[in-house]
């Protein structure tokens, strides 16, 4: 059997007024025939397929380009006369039948009749879809290869409540929207059809006849696969049947996301981490990343990989932050099962995988969600609510139950189908406030006249309840840049319900301080101390993310003052301060070896620079900081509670800081001392709370980090010299531009 050829068949001329077969006018009216031919019939299942009148079964089919249509029943071929243009209609004996089309070039195509099948969606699915509470939306909507009524094919279902007609189009029907119109399912607003012989790898879109008569070609909002951009079609993908081998990780991961555990995250843009230059510079595939990236991150001592958005997106320059296919891992690096291979490999290596998730906005691309059924369906109609001025994107209507269901279900989807260990939710601040980045008069107040977006708040709370309810062993993280209260507090206590929040204030203050010439730092001393005043108000992650090394901000190394070695020393001292400071850690790729240039999404990291001694020194430092952080309870057990921290000294005139970190009872106390001037400080006395010997466990000036190797190799023993409010103290050497970390030796 062959598929239909391109529309080249010679068509006969037909009368303007359609005339149904006289014997069956009750089954096929003239209006039906005209509407089918014009592709505007709102209820095609009412007229297509087989129906019985009296004792005779009649079959109606629409077959553009066919010169002859027959129904095969057993071994018999029964002709179906042409009624009008592309509509064929005639009596067919009882029994299973297929349709056989003959085309002008002599080719034939035989298929089961899509309009002879009952609905696939059951009553429960329909009830939940209509109510907007289907937490497993992806199991009902989208394109699912399956066997229906004993026939292989694919079930398609999509939400488009205001459409006049929705059709599945693809290469299999020459992208002709008249061929496979869908049935409307009750009052759900959804449309469905089962198409025989369609399966894995087939391209498709939905042709939507909108509320005002406009026609749009749309990718599947719940599609599991896509063509490689700039192509825009969805791809049928069978996402069932993956044999996971990460049982040990899944059984143990609950403990790894607790506030008392070391969490050190390596943030990655998959397209630019490494590229294969011997193959036209293509990015690594998921399967290659499962080896190269996983081994690298494990070797560097990080605990988690966080991926910049990989939900399918059309524009490379958005880095994934303008997604069109929220249910499809981008095809740029391979098909869905290969993404699962990557996640599984990370889990087997003992690494968690977090996904940067973007429910805050979506692009205006014509094949996406915008005006999906000819109306503002996913977005707000009013641009004061529905358009992001900063990003020229659209905003989800969080108050619409079906839209909220779509997003909440998507969060669950990544946990269920891809075993992800959590979501980092992008741009939460832009969701929480109706006046976010808007001028006066350019926003719509809430029902109480305020600026808070109650609907977005409710959505985020519902998402966290759903995700943690189904998978209490994962974590959600908010990128939230304001002081909105309770971001990482439970919903039942009035919070948003996130597990963690990025500490944007700490990042902004400390980076601003570090970029200053050391001579001026004494006047901005509080920028390094202020963060402690609110450090335990949320469960914080300290983020040095991709946002800090793009758009002219320069690389982390370029931000540092001084020349040559001083730049590296400043950066090493800052990283030492960061890893000693309360809060979980996040570092963007390339920052771990002090990439000299700012990040470019379309080029791989400067791995050649990473081989230089000073860059290698920073890389060694990050590896050792991660090891120390993981192996030292005092540096992570109390990251999120005030019991784990105490200031010792803070001298603006010398730009020095010292503080203590405490773990649980019995854990060795840690002392962190920072010198942010290029002046060597000999015999620098620091108060300590306990007698005994304090071992120097890390010094950012060490030779292995390409420093001057000045410090306290043998550590320091506490003496009965009062200092900093303590009865005892240690005398240290503070190298210039350095952080020194000491741990009390257990007796």
Commentary on this structure:
- It is elongated and about 110 Å long.
- By secondary structure, it is an alpha+beta fold.
- It starts with 29 loop residues before the first helix and ends with a strand.
- It has an 8-stranded parallel β-barrel. The protein has a 6-stranded antiparallel beta sheet with strand order 31-32-33-38-35-36.
- It has 18 helices and 38 strands.
- Among the domains are: 22-116, Immunoglobulins (Immunoglobulin-like, Sandwich), CATH 2.60.40.10; 123-235, Immunoglobulin-like (Sandwich), CATH 2.60.40.10; 642-744, Golgi alpha-mannosidase II (Immunoglobulin-like, Sandwich).
- β3 (66-73) and β4 (76-79) form a beta hairpin.
Q: What is the CATH class name of one domain? A: Mainly Beta
At CATH's second level, what is the architecture of one domain? Sandwich
Strand content of the residues, in percent? 25-35%
Strand order of the largest sheet: 17-20-23-26-27-28-29-30
The overall pLDDT, averaged over residues, is: 94
SS class? alpha+beta
Radius of gyration: 32 Å
Helix content: 10-25%
The residue ranges in which pLDDT falls below 50 over 5 or more consecutive positions are 1-19
- The end-to-end distance, rounded to whole angstroms, is 83 Å
Largest beta-sheet characterization = 8 strands, parallel, barrel
**Gross geometry:** elongated
Please count the helical segments: 18
CATH homologous superfamily title of one domain: Immunoglobulins
**What's the number of extended β-strand segments?**
38
Assign the CATH topology of one domain. Answer: Immunoglobulin-like
């Amino acid at each position: 059997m062959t598929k239909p050829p391109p529309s080249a068949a010679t068509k006969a001329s037909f009368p303007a007024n359609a005339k149904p077969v006289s014997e069956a006018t009750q089954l096929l009216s003239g209006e039906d025939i005209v509407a089918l031919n014009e592709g505007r019939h709102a209820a095609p299942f009412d007229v297509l397929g087989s129906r019985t009148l009296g004792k005779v079964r009649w079959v109606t089919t629409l077959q553009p380009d066919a010169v002859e249509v027959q129904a095969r029943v057993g071994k018999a071929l029964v002709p179906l006369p042409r009624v009008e243009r592309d509509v064929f209609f005639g009596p067919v004996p009882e029994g299973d039948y297929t349709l056989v089309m003959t085309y002008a070039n002599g080719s034939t195509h035989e298929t089961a009749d899509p309009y002879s099948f009952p609905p696939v969606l059951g009553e429960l699915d329909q009830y939940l879809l209509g109510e907007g509470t289907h937490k497993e939306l992806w199991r009902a909507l989208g394109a699912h290869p399956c066997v229906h009524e004993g026939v292989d094919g694919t079930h398609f279902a999509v939400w488009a409540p205001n459409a006049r007609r929705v059709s599945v189009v693809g290469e299999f029907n020459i992208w002709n929207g008249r061929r496979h119109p869908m049935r409307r399912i009750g009052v759900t607003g959804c449309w469905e059809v089962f198409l025989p012989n369609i399966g894995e790898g087939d391209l498709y879109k939905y042709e939507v006849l909108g509320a005002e008569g406009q026609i749009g070609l749309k990718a599947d909002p719940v599609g599991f696969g896509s063509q490689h951009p700039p192509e825009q079609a969805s791809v049928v993908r069978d996402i069932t049947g993956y044999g996971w081998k990460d049982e040990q990780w899944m059984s143990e991961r609950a403990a790894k996301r607790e506030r008392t555990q070391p969490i050190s995250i390596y943030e990655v843009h998959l397209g630019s981490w490494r590229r294969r230059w011997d193959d036209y510079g293509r990015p690594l595939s998921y399967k290659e990343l499962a080896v190269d990236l996983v081994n690298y991150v494990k070797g560097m001592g990080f605990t988690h990989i966080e991926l910049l958005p990989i939900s399918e997106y059309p524009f490379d320059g958005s880095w994934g932050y303008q997604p069109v296919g929220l249910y499809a891992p981008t095809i740029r690096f391979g098909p869905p099962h290969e993404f699962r291979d990557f996640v599984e490999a990370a889990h087997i290596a003992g690494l968690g995988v977090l996904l940067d998730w973007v429910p805050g906005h979506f692009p205006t691309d014509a094949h996406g969600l915008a005006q999906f059924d000819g109306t503002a369906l996913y977005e707000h109609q009013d641009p004061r609510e529905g358009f992001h001025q900063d990003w020229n994107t659209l905003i989800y209507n969080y108050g619409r139950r079906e839209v909220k269901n779509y997003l909440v279900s998507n969060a669950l989807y990544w946990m269920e189908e891809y075993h992800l260990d959590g979501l980092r939710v992008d741009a939460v601040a832009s969701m929480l406030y109706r006046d976010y980045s808007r001028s006066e008069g350019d926003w719509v107040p809430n029902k109480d006249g305020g600026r808070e977006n109650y609907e977005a708040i409710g959505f985020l709370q519902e998402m966290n309840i759903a995700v943690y309810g189904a998978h209490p062993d994962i974590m959600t993280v908010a990128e939230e840049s304001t002081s909105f209260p309770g971001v990482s507090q439970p919903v039942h206590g009035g919070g948003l319900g996130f597990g963690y929040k990025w500490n944007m204030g700490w990042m902004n203050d400390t980076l601003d301080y570090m970029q200053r010439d050391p001579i001026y730092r004494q006047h901005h001393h509080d920028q390094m101390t202020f963060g402690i005043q609110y450090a335990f108000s949320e469960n914080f992650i300290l983020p040095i993310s991709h946002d800090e090394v793009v758009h002219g901000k320069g690389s982390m190394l370029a931000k540092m003052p001084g020349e040559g070695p001083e730049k590296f020393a400043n950066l090493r001292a800052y990283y030492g301060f960061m890893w000693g400071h309360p809060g979980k850690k996040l570092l963007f790729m390339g920052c771990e070896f002090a990439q000299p240039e700012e990040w470019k999404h379309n080029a791989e990291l400067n791995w050649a620079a990473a081989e230089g001694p000073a860059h290698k020194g920073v890389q060694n430092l990050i590896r050792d900081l991660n090891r120390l952080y993981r192996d030292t309870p005092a540096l992570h057990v109390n990251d999120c509670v005030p019991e784990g921290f105490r200031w010792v000294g803070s001298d603006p005139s010398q730009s020095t800081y010292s503080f203590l970190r405490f773990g649980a009872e019995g854990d060795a106390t840690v002392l962190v001392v920072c010198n942010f001037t290029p002046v060597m400080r000999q015999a620098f006395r620091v108060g300590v709370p306990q007698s005994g010997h304090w071992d120097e466990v890390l010094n950012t000036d060490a030779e292995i980090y390409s420093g001057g190797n000045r410090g306290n190799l043998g550590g320091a023993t506490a003496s009965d010299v009062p200092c900093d409010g303590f009865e005892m103290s240690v005398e240290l050497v503070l190298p210039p531009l350095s952080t020194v970390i000491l741990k009390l030796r257990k007796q």
